[in-house]
Amino acid sequence: MRRISLTVNGVKHDAMVEPRQLLVYFLREQLALTGTNVGCDTSTCGACTILVNGKSAKSCTLLAVQADGAEVTTIEGLASNGEMHPLQKAFHESHGLQCGYCTPGMIMASVDLIANNDAMSDEDIRMGLEGNLCRCTGYQNIVKSVQQAAGEMRSPAST
Amino acid sequence: MIPAEFDYDVAESGDHALQLLEQHGDEAKLLAGGHSLLPLMKLRLATPSMLIDIGRLNDMSYVRDDGDALAIGALTRHEDVEGSDVLEQHCAIVAHTAGEIGDLQVRHFGTIGGSLAHGDPASDLPTVMLALDAQMVLRSSSGERTVGANEFFTGLFETALGPTELLTEIRVPKLTGGWSYQKFHHRAQDWAIVGVAAVQSNGGASVALTNMGEVPLRASGVEQALTSGSDAATAAQEAAQNTSPPSDPFGSADYRRDLARVLTRRALQEAMGR
Q1: What sign results for the dihedral spanned by CA atoms A126, B256, B46, B130?
Q2: What pLDDT does residue A158 have?
Q3: Interface touch B189/A61, C-beta < 8 Å
Q4: Domains, chain A, ranges and CATH?
Q5: Tens digits of per-residue pLDDT, A34-86?
Q6: Which helix (H) or strand (E) covers residue A113, if one does?
Q7: Measured in whole angstroms, how far is the alpha carbon of residue A136 from the centre of its chain?
Q8: Which residue ranges form the domains of chain B, and what is each CATH number?
Q9: Looking at beta carbons, which residues of chain B come within 8 Å of A117?
Q10: Using a CB-CB distance cutoff of 8 angstroms, which residues of chain A are in contact with residue B31?
């Protein structure tokens, strides 16, 4: 067992973990943050996407020990004071989900995408989300949702 | 899927990593970004009893102009290779190809050294290194040696790295001519079904192939045809010579041979037009 110390959604956690414990299972089973889904478990589908030090990451392909000292953000960390994050709101309003399984990963990947890119075309968003699969084939509305949120997050009125 | 049990230690420096390697020998694996190694460990295709985490050695992440060559630190993440201005200016094929690997999430963590040391014939960077005649700098506690890409990849998931050696740096030439990397894949994030790297040189081109055998291969038949004056389309017909491509659900060996010829033609035409 190894001691790790990391910040998840602004809360500091100290924990003992087996070196082989994957970060996604640490979040889900030890911290009970079950918003992050495990889809393929082979770093393909992106359902387990979270932010590690602000960068999108597939938490099924990281060991918890690799996140020692890191700042982690999961889908649970986006809303503040009961207000949904602009991406959560946009996915809701633009119908960016059907079954919803891929949604936490889609949204976390999009947080990184919007933060690191200025005005994106639909094509840019599609390429930026190449690591996230939606099996309901809902990409059309996912792209629409990301565009809506990107517009809102960049407009001075919303800040 | 959970990997088999292993012990874990964090290397505080390159020297410390070498010490730990000496101590644990063949049973240990180095963990950089983990995006090639961990998937294998989860499938229990790799079961090292010790992981030495070198992912925090930030001084091994750099791209430097060394005059006649460019030096890339082995722990430079794909994202940083892709975004390197120095590479973009002098050896853009490396930056471009790093951007073709996996997806954004994978490129945030995967490293150039990890990808090369993994020795997967379906990955893109080994092929590019072969076409560029890149040099790998390997360090052990007894010193440093340099191995050319043509000798580095020795078999399926096997490289010239000894059990107590660390890949520290990759050296690539400054290019003056055109280049191309053609990757044919199933989904955007996937490994290449076949890939072709072409780098223009005086009077011809260096051409290398991804996923056409157990290691990345030089398409020497194509290179010779070009040197003797064939045009790109004619030379590309030799692309599948002396290859042994795999058959899998994404394509039969025959399909891959055909793809190699088509992609080589496209790569040569793009390299020569650039």
Answers
A1: negative
A2: 46
A3: no
A4: 2-74 (3.10.20.30), 86-154 (1.10.150.120)
A5: 999 999 999 999 999 999 999 999 999 999 999 999 999 999 999 999 999 99
A6: helix A103-116
A7: 19
A8: 7-53 (3.30.43.10), 58-172 (3.30.465.10), 179-273 (3.30.390.50)
A9: none
A10: 63, 66
Query: Of how many residues is chain B composed?
Result: 274
Substitution target in A22, A23, A68, A130 with the highest count of B β-carbons within 10 Å is A130
Residue of chain B with shortest Cα separation from A43: B39
Q: Which chain A residues in 84-123 lie under 8 Å from chain B, judged by CB atoms?
A: 109, 112-113
Q: What does the pLDDT read at residue A157?
A: 58
Residues of B in contact with A52 (CB under 8 A): 108
Q: Would you call B174 helix, strand, or coil by DSSP?
A: coil
pLDDT tens, residue by residue, A108-127? 999 999 999 989 999 999 99
Please say whether the dihedral angle defined by the alpha carbons of residues B180, B181, B187 and B193, taken in this order, is positive or negative. positive
Per residue in A15-31, pLDDT (tens digit) is 999 999 999 999 999 99
Q: Output the pLDDT for position B196.
A: 98
